[in-house]
Amino acid sequence: MQTQATLSLSHHPASVFRGQPRAEGPFGMIGTPMRYARNTEIYGEAEPAEYLYQLVFGAVRTYKILDDGRRQIGSFYLPGDIFGFEAGDAHNSSAEAICESQVMMVKRNALMVRASHERDLARQLWVATALELRRFQEHLALLISSAEERVVGFLIDMARRATKNATIELPMSRQDIADYLGLTIETVSRTFTQLEQTGVIALRTSRRVELRNRAMLNRLGAS
Fold first, then answer.
1. How many CB atoms lie within 10 A of CB 186?
2. What percent of the chain has pLDDT over 90?
3. pLDDT tens, position by position, 109-131
4. What torsion do the CA atoms of 138, 171, 61, 165 make, to the nearest 10 degrees?
């Protein structure tokens, strides 16, 4: 775990932005902007869950290290997403910046007090919590699907969240995707190649995926 600290935020090794874009949504005007370099830990498993976070730019992954040493990624967060929700007082997993990222962070207790007086803020937090639950449920469903269905489901989710056109820019690596889907990196790469060979996608680069046949992709994801 990295232990640099700034501004008395005991764990956060980031620098505060000044004059940088602020997040849209519930944290836009009340959060503290923090920047994290690639692969920098934002919080660690079992650490006190004192803050909630909204991603402004970049990408974040949450993960656990299993007893056998394997990494299981639980979620990917993209700009606009809120993360750090916990049922208890400690984090159930760790969070890392996948690439250079900026987040807005707000003290959880202060946010709850404010939400008790501001109906719109309370509504936005409720929506964010419900969305987090839905993503968790969808991830569980993916993990009991075939390898092809897992990769296809992942691409459909990224298309829905990350872009409004036919090209997806993936900030995460193939290893990240494999650890999220519970597959080997070889299986993920082979499945991407098979989807390209059948004309469903085109791989412009290792991280740029063009969706060539959305109808077929949806059918494969629902099979």
1. 10
2. 63
3. 888 888 888 888 888 889 989 99
4. -30
Please name every residue paired with 57 in a beta bridge, in sequence order, or none if there are none: 102
Give the bridge partners for 56, in sequence order. Answer: none
Query: 166 is written with which tokens?
Result: 């036919």
Burial tier of 81 (Cβ tally within 10 Å: 0-12, 13-18, 19+):
buried
Residue 55, token pair as written in the block: 């991603």
Please tell me the pTM assigned to this model: 0.85
Question: d(Cα 33, Cα 49) in Å, to the nearest integer?
Answer: 18
Distance in angstroms (rounded) separating the CA atoms of residues 121 and 126: 9
